[in-house]
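Figure 2 data, in text form.
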Amino acid sequence: MPLSDTAIRNAKPGDKAKKMFDGGGLYLEIAPSGGKWWRLKYRFDGKEKRLSLGVYPDVSLKNARARRDEARKLLANEIDPSENRKAQKAAKNERAANSFEVIAREWFAKQEPNWAANHANRIIRRLERDIFPWIGGNPISDITAPQLLESIRQIEQRGALETAHRALGNCGQVFRYAVATGRTERDPSGDLRGALPPVKGTHFASVTEPKQVAEVLRALDGYEGTLPVRCALRLAPLVFVRPGELRHAQWEDIDLITAEWRYMVTKTDSQHIVPLSGQAVKILQELKPLTGNGRYIFPSARNPKGDKPMSDNAVLAAMRRMGISKEEMSGHGFRAMARTILDEVLGFRPDYIEHQLAHAVRDPNGRAYNRTAHLPERRKMMQDWADYLDKLKAGAEIIPINQSA
């Protein structure tokens, strides 16, 4: 007799596994523990075989019969249902293993050790937020240029054009990695050149006229927030390093006796020395009792252990609260300010300035200068720069840049 839902529901387990047959090789196997599994018994090439069709009640009697009928159609065409299932599973696993997301994460894992932590975090967040939801599950060899562009357009349409360009560049890197490792034959991102409008170039806001600089410096000195942020604001114009380098400054890289800060510039993968003026040393000595037991000079306010750096926004937010607008000054703006005034007002050699900015400076023979190049001259330059800023704050006579020559 064929099975019924009532008979299946009322079936009780015994001391041993028992079988309830339905027809066409389909039966329900009831384990002593009470579990109920659908099985199909069939013969192929003269051998008796079994095929699992699912668990009751997740797979109903009606669905189990449908699965049995599908398997019998395969048998009628001389196809072994068990081998067919294995082949489908292997194909599915191969598609998953060669999906864009799997390969992108593999590429990211290989590149991450070469990047700064914040740079790596931005890339993986960009992929997870803007790319994986749209094409992450697709086999990378199946993704076309129009499909990739559709994903990138999602970013552009929310007004993040620069992010869209960066995401497209990251996708191109993933595709080229897939080509190199034999998972696809070409990079479709190359077909999208010109598909996005160009990003209009902008410069970081900065004040370079001495009179404006004096006003900004006085505002920074008057900040009444936490000591780490106050010290970061006062130190930033004295050392004019990149904002991320200042935030990630570590006590172990500072030598207050020799007045030097030595660290690795991740952007150029080179070691750099910042001679510290007397004013800079004084600021660090003021802060050390508070944060000197931690890793970072300027730790996150939310991390009392000091093993996480200050956030990107801490210094900028402080400047905005003091009324210094983003059109006047940014974190990078101190670099432009120093470069302009050191050259046009204080008259230091451009190569000294560029070297202190940790730019790729080369000698007349094309060789990169080492980190100690012109160190005595740069040490004097940094002290003269700090003294000049003190004079500006004190209200010394200010000569506009266009009259300084």
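Caption note: The chain has 16 helices and seven strands.
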